[in-house]
Amino acid sequence: MTVTAAYSVCRTIAKREAKNFYYAFRVLPKRKSDAMCAVYAFMRRADDIADDESMTIDERREVMRRWLEDWRAARQSGASSDPVFIALNDTQKAFGIPDKLLEDLVKGTTMDLEPSFAPEGGVQTYANFDELYRYCYLVASVVGLVCIRIFGYSDARAERFAEETGIAFQLTNILRDVKEDVERGRIYLPLDMIAQHGVSVERVRELAAGATLEANEREMLGALAAKAQDYYVSANELLPLIDADSRAALWVLVMIYYDLLTRIRARKYDVFSSRVRVPTAGKLVLLARGALMALRNRRQA
Predict the structure, then answer these.
(1) What gap in Å lies between CA 42 and CA 194, rounded to an integer?
(2) Tell me: the pLDDT tens digits for 90-128?
(3) pLDDT tens per residue, range 31-57
(4) Same-domain check for residues 2 and 135
(5) Phi/psi of residue 32, each to 5°?
(6) What is the total count of domains within the chain?
(7) Do 119 and 45 sit in the same domain of this protein?
(8) Phi-psi group of 122: left, alpha or beta (phi > 0 → left; psi -120 to 50 → alpha; rest → beta)
(9) What band does 301 get if pLDDT is binned at 50, 70 and 90?
(10) What is the rounded CA–CA span in Å between residue 249 and residue 91?
């Protein structure tokens, strides 16, 4: 398969699955957009293996192990029949993306395959925010560190801001997905934060099953939202540090995620009765504004 055809396959995957990310990809120059699609397709495959509930945890570990061996072999030889590996290899060469970042990304995904069970209820949990931060770093901040290599930057501060922007995005995802995660045996709300607000693991499970949300439980979710809000400050710091032709893409992505957090707050943290979403119409408005921003930035470059 040619590199061009491989990128086309990755773009199809991103267009079908990426949702929020694909809106941002569309306002990038094509070379960078193709690269983002390749990285996304790689991420998507790792997530799909980790979340495939048709297999046991042990089976998923084995499939992930074999898939990673195939990717590493493709990196060594420079040859593969997998279009995602072909496109990703080209992207890594073009934008100087080290294997270590992608290895860390997969490490974050496989954390869900090796759960530590809490005595309160036999679900995957995190004792405190430091533990949760490590998880968020691996599954989200690493993505940010890959993305800025594609976006382009010269100021080293961009790396810290990209890390913290990833934390903001992942905390927003955690808030949105509390119900779905509980149903999968995962609670990403830190145990010390849960206890601080007089809530238990079992109570979180009851909320996911339809129990009425109480004031202290809204405060618990609000505490995590406040942490996300603090990290969104780094997104504003990051924007001027990346190349002008990529700023619109990052702006679109930040605005979509921040809008999601705003909607969660407007719902008074009721993320259990129905899934909180940014409507397609709202995303299209942001995309249009981002396209105009990209056009202005390219004219000024």
Answers:
(1) 34
(2) 999 999 999 999 999 888 888 767 655 444 456 788 999
(3) 999 999 999 999 999 989 988 889 888
(4) no
(5) -75, -35
(6) 2
(7) no
(8) left
(9) low
(10) 18
Residue with tokens 């290895």: 103
- At residue 63, φ and ψ (nearest 5 deg) are -65, -40
If pLDDT is split at 50, 70 and 90, which confidence band does 292 have? Answer: confident
State which of 96, 124, 146 marks the end of a domain.
96
Q: Of 96, 129, 160, which closes a domain?
A: 96
Neighbours of 255 (CB within 10 A): 21
Dist. CA 249–CA 259, nearest whole Å: 15
Query: If we measure between CA atoms, which residue out of 38, 108, 94 comes closest to residue 71?
Result: 38
Is residue 204 in a domain?
Answer: yes
For 73, phi and psi rounded to 5 degrees?
Answer: -65, -40
Query: Beta partners for 117?
Result: 124
Q: Quick: pLDDT tens for 207-241.
A: 999 999 999 999 999 999 999 999 999 999 999 99
* Domain span including residue 152: 115-301
Residues 75 and 181 in one domain: no
